[in-house]
Amino acid sequence: MTQPETFAYLAKSQQALKEARIVLANDLAEAAGRAAYHAAYHAAQAFIFERTGKAAKSHNGVRSEFARLAKEEPGIDRSFSAFLARAYNLKARADYAIGDDISVSVAEAGQAIESAAQFVEGISRLLAPQG
Prior knowledge:
By secondary structure, this protein is an all-alpha fold.
């Protein structure tokens, strides 16, 4: 990992993961789900930046560019691209949906945090300096 921006994105992903755990511990499932998405989003941006030298400009851009680059990277778990899309939908529900039927549950947020932690760890390990 040679790009300072890569480190900054990974640090932001770790911070979002920490926030997700704190807010979930306080039964704030929507905020936890949103933070879990942001953890994965920033880790994906780190990977994109490290591989291309530039950041994607939108959430959709991050998802599509990550998926494209991940296909060529044997070190990336194939479930990561699908999780990024699912987590974005969780974030969108947390941000915009109303009503009990579509709210984010504590269990759903907890699962998103676990998946986000695997995502962040996997990308961090992949981008870690070798040697």
